[in-house]
Amino acid sequence: MEQPRGQGLNDIPASTSLPPLVEGPLRYFLRCTVARALWTTPKPPSAATLVRLRWWGETSDGTVFQPPSRAGQPGGRTTARYPVRCGPRQFTAYLTDMGVLVLEVMTKLDHLPIGRAQITSLSQLSPSHPISGVFPIISPTSDKLGELQVLLMALLFVIYSCKLYCCNICAWIKLCSVLTLPQSLTGLKLQKILKSGIKKVEFSFTAPNLGNLCCKIVTCGLKTGNIK
After folding, report:
1. DSSP conformation letters of the chain
2. Beta-carbon neighbour count of residue 91 at 10 Å?
3. Distance (Å, rounded) from C-alpha 148 to C-alpha 158?
4. Does this model's pTM top 0.85?
5. What is the DSSP pairing of strand 63-65 with strand 49-53?
6. Residues 65/78, Cβ–Cβ less than 8 Å
7. CB 96 within 8 A of CB 19
8. Across the strands, what pairs with 147?
9. What is the phi/psi pair of residue 29, to 5°?
10. Which residues belong to the signal peptide in this entry (predicted)?
11. Which tens digit of pLDDT belongs to each residue from 102-133?
């Protein structure tokens, strides 16, 4: 079965696009990784745990992550990529209005609530500013049980047109610091693709490659490209 665009083989299927119920073309992805649950309470949960994320306005049951919570205990899938169907300014406004992102920690067997972790300062999230850290898990009785290790990162997906000038493209690229690059796409392969004259080129990259990639685009000439 073909993977949805932007979704990795081991990603959790996203329960919603963002903002929920907003229709429109795909603008970019928001990658959320719940890497690990770290227990600090003397009596941590004996059974495996899950983490559920529901976005403000979402009508589904949310996305369920399966981070490892004990040393040596294998976890399940920990990453989901949410399609974002609005521009960065509109998405920042949505995050600002939401205020707090709540992650519910629950038992795996019967989904009984254990505690919650909250992420604030969501309006700071942007392609150049991911949110990464450990966030306390608080019980219903306001006791700290542990911490969740979470990463929120915007992954850009942009369609370039032949009408755009390379210099403008490169200037825009330099504003973006978080994109993904297939390891198989080397500089030589990129040059070959760009020189081939095909109508569409698909590529992506990360911040350390920005300078070299901009030079390659200017040197080779860009036809039409997709970043994902």
Report:
1. -PPPTT--TTPBPPS--BSTT------EEEEEEEEEEEE-SSS--SS-EEEEE--TT--S--EEE----STT------EEEEEE-S-HHHHHHHHHHH--EEEEEEETTT--EEEEEEE--GGG-BTTB-EEEEEEEE-TTS-EEEEEEEEEEEEE-EE--TTS-HHHHHHHHTT-------TT--HHHHHHHHHTT-S-EEE---GGGHHHHHHHHHHH----EEE-
2. 23
3. 32
4. no
5. antiparallel
6. yes
7. no
8. 38, 136
9. -120, 150
10. none
11. 999 999 888 999 999 999 989 999 878 899 99
Structure tokens at 99: 């205020």
* Token pair 């000439």 in the structure block, residue: 221
What string of DSSP letters covers 107-151?
A: ETTT--EEEEEEE--GGG-BTTB-EEEEEEEE-TTS-EEEEEEEE
Nearest to 30 by CA among 78, 101, 79, 84: 84
pLDDT for 41-89, tens place per residue? 988 887 789 999 999 999 999 999 999 887 667 678 999 999 999 988 9
Q: How far is Cα 185 from Cα 202, in angstroms, rounded to an integer?
A: 10
Residues making up the chain, counted from first to last:
228
